[in-house]
Amino acid sequence: MTRPARNHLRWTALVAVPLLLSAIAGLQTRIDPEMDSIAPQKDDLLLRSPSAIQKMSLGYDSLLADIYWTRAVQYYGARFATKGATFPLLWPLLEITTTLDPHLIIAYRFGAFFLAESGTGGPGRPDLAVELVRQGIASNPDEWLLNVDLGFLYYWRLKDYQSSASAFLDGSNKPKAPPWMKMMAARVAQKGGSLETARMIWSEIYESTTDPKIRERALDTLRGLKALEDESKLNELADEYQRHFGHYPASVNALRSSGLIAAIPVDPDGYPYIFGPDGKAALDPMSTVVIPKEIKDPPKSR
Amino acid sequence: MSTAPVPVALNTFREAVRDRVLYNLIFFALLMMGAAILVGQISIGIDRLVIINLGLSAISLIGLVMAIFIGVGLVSKEIEKRTLYSLLARPIRRWEFLLGKYAGLVLTLAVNTSFMTLGLAVALFSVGRPLVAGDLLIFIAVYFILLQLALVTALALFFSCFTSPMLSTLFTLGTYITGCFASDIRAFGELTRSPTLKATTRIIYYLVPNFHNFNVIAAAAHGQRIPVSLVGYNTLYAALYIALLLVAASAVFSSRNLK
Predict the structure, then answer these.
(1) Residue A47 has pLDDT above 70, yes or no
(2) Which of A171, A222, B128, B140 has the most CB within a 10 Å radius?
């Protein structure tokens, strides 16, 4: 081939390749909606039996566990905070992950968190979360952090304070368990549903977790608990006000004017609390603080 | 337009037939026969579904193996057997030779795929489900498989122009797998909080050949509607990508010192 012909071909390629690539990218944007219309995102697990997958993994079970764990996180992340989203494959994915690698502690810890969250945050299955963490404890008997998670699940999600106390106590006997676990066990057993205990547990979670999402959740809950505590105190003061003046205070200012409080109390967002006609303290509508549903409307203790 | 690639294409096809490449059809026939007999015994109500899924998947897989393994040898075999030198001594340019080789393999794949589609139709007939007008979807799926195979062949040919057959196989297979997971790669990037990763996965998504575009096997098996516009878009997509790869392959092959 002659040199000019070769150069000509080279130049043609240099011009044509970028042009064709941009045309291809443009075309892909038209193909995407067409493909979505014929193949709606349908999640499925072809093989749901963890033991069958383990047998088929040919010794690469820990690698496969990592892949399944990544898939579980992606699955959860794609649905998290999406209105109307359901999580039917979350449990099977976690079950497969932990069967393939029973020592993947993170899968038990975060998996339980994912399973227990309700509303748009998760499937709201604390029972499955407890089962997952129990499996984790059985496979990793020295891992005290799993006991913390189990104690938390019983305390916060299931309001089963006796089981929660015993989970903390079991964990406190494990090597490397921190001393506060024994204290927590005693406190939960004595004052199951108290706000102080709840705050103590969430504070521990906030301090011990490295995951930003869980940390954020713990901080939100702590802010909500603080507001709940404030509201409870304000309600008591409003009752006292009513006894003195024959009616409930119209605002927190009225409480201050009467001398019952020295300063206007504000919520963690900085907004003053308000009073309803029934004399109950509430958050300002502008406030972003959310009072935890689990405490505000607690189910009956077992 | 030059007709020089035509004899090269026909020779490539004849060579593939001589090399007993089409013997894979026997395997396909046996697979379809076995499936047709077995599926009726062990399943209820999904025999048609299984036959279509199995048949289309086998057409795709067998074609893929052929496209990769024959594709990577298209150029290297000619160099190894030294037949390329006598060929290039004739009035044929290098890009015409490449185009002929490419067309020859695509013709082989098209013939092979046609026979396998016929086998699929026979298998469907044997389970008491002859092809009807609605089964046009199966032909669309087969057409998309053919487009996919043509694209894989172009990839294999491109890689074989500058590297060994072994590496070409690995590169082609790697690109194919990446292309099959292109949507997942993008979805993975979307889930991260890193804008760099998000942008990178997006670029990968648009640059790698997106083989997911051609996968309508499940839709065909379930009788889902496939938009006509998708047929047009996919044809254009494959044509553009193949053109890109052939231009790049020609530029690389023309610069190569064959002494």
Answers:
(1) no
(2) A171
Q: Which residues of A touch B259 (CB under 8 A)?
A: none
89-128 of B, contacting A, C-beta below 8 A: 93-95
Q: List chain B domain ranges.
A: 5-255
B26 touches chain A (CB under 8 A): no
Residue of A7, A11, A27, A73 to mutate for B, most B C-beta atoms under 10 A: A27
Residues 60-79, chain A, touching B (beta carbon < 8 A): 74, 77-78
On whether the CB atoms of residues A100 and A57 are closer than 8 A, the answer is yes
Q: Chain A residues with CB inside 8 Å of B229's CB?
A: 34
> Do B254 and A24 make contact, defined as CB atoms within 8 angstroms?
no
| Cβ-based burial of A22 (10 A; exposed 0-12, middle 13-18, buried ≥19) | exposed
Q: How much of chain A exceeds pLDDT 90, in percent?
A: 20
**What's the rounded Cα separation, in Å, for the pair B151 and A180?**
63
What pLDDT digit, counting tens, does each position of B151-168 carry? 999 999 999 988 889 999
pLDDT for A301 = 39
> Would you call B199 an interface residue with chain A, using a CB distance cutoff of 8 Å?
no
- When pLDDT is averaged across residues B12-19 and rounded to a whole number, the result is 85
Of B131, B124, B117, B144, nearest to B216 by C-alpha is: B144
CB of A81 within 8 Å of a chain B CB? The answer is no
**Average pLDDT over every residue of A151-180:** 88
Give this prediction's pTM: 0.62
* Contact criterion met (CB < 8 Å) for B216 and A38: yes
Least confident of B131-135, B195-199, B203-207: B131-135
- ipTM score here? 0.76
What domains, with CATH codes, occur in chain A? Answer: 50-216 (1.25.40), 229-296 (no CATH)
B162–A contact, CB cutoff 8 A = no
List CB contacts (< 8 A) between A37 and chain B: 227
Of B227, B233, B248, the CB nearest to A38: B227
| CB-CB under 8 Å, B248 with A6 | no
| Nearest beta carbon to residue B224 from set A5, A6, A38 | A38
Q: Which of A239, A281, A230 is nearest to A260 (CA)?
A: A239
First to last CA, chain B: 29
How far, CA to CA in Å, does B35 sit from each of A5, A11, B217, B242?
Answer: 54, 52, 17, 35
